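Note to self: keep these together.
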Amino acid sequence: MKSGIQPDQNVADLLSNWPAVIPLFLAHHMSCVGCSMARFETLADVTRIYGIGLSLFLSEINEQVNPQPFEKEGK
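Structure:
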């Protein structure tokens, strides 16, 4: 069973459902935010178009969507 955001995730749906990922797209200088093509493209498509490593980008997105709980030092 798949967990987290996957390469076949639609960009427009991702941005709509998890707006917290918008800064990641902007940090990578991706024009997906507000782009009319975002509803037709997947994460795999846009990482290929922008020359960004898919694994790295998915990791960044999944960290934002499913953040790890903060652990205090010394525990």
